[in-house]
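Hey, can you fold this one?
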Amino acid sequence: MKYRSHRYRCFQCKAIFWSQQWLPIKGRIGPQLLSYMIYQVIELRLPQRVAGLSLKQLFSLDLSPSLLGQLKAKAARIYQPTYDGILSSLMTGHVLHADETSISVDGGSAYVWVFTNLEEVAFYFTETREGEILQTLFGAFRGVLVSDFYAAYDSMKCPQQKCLIHLIRDFNEDFLKQPFDKELEEVMRAFSSVLRPIIETVDRFGLKSRFLRRHKRAVEQFYLRVADTDYQSEAAIKYKKRFEKNRDKLFTFLDYDGVPWNNNNAEHAIKSFAMLRNVIRGSSSARGIRDYATLLSVYETCKYKGTNFLNFLRSGHEDIDEFIKGHSIHRAVLL
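Sure. Predicted structure:
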């Protein structure tokens, strides 16, 4: 869209000024074109350079790489309230999945954390893998935290569920290395005999505590059996200590509705950032990664909620739920 405006001069003070309609127009990139660029970079995961070529081909806009970075930063500022709302919603939920992954920034290593439930996703950039971020963002969280066995998560003062798939993977890796360790095999079989009926109950009735609580007696018997056995194998002793350390974090899901026994939700969400990381390839600064994290959080939350990311960007809304509500009302009126 092309805009024209006259300049005006005051007869009394001789000051030059523009019309009020002209002043809100800032720069050549309007909100719709900005939405299109962010859609390409975030949802389609195109490198900024390629997105710039698209803008040049379609709209004859020859934008420098630095200007494209500034536009991404501008979009991140626009949707910062959306991002803050996602974090707030996660903090007040009944379950929270967490995971983290590394990324190369300015020649060094940094980390991006993901926090999610079944409706919202938030990515958060930190320069270290220390657990202070958990207290900063979710110190008041009182739901159930689902995570892997990284020690930083133990600092959270809330009920926790460790990912049992991680435990099974560790079992399998150790048994492949030591296939003739009878004591390790015994521990594996005992754990499997407890977990298998629980998974069958989940498959049949879902994650409902009224059906899952009946397995708590078998779990207690398993812990007693492991505690009373004097293992000699180094691997078996290691798992005995691991069960003792995480005794109150392995079967927490038996007492809560809707809490899974694995961390698949967070692992699925972190793959989205991993795909974007392959596009970035260490070419972004810490500030740039923070902008990516903000916008990717908005995209993933839109996807989780079943709404179109580009349409949300173009709508001018900052609240995803309000956009969905308004869109639903509009469709109802049309029908």
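DSSP finds 14 helices and seven strands in the chain. Let me know if you want another pass with a different chain boundary.
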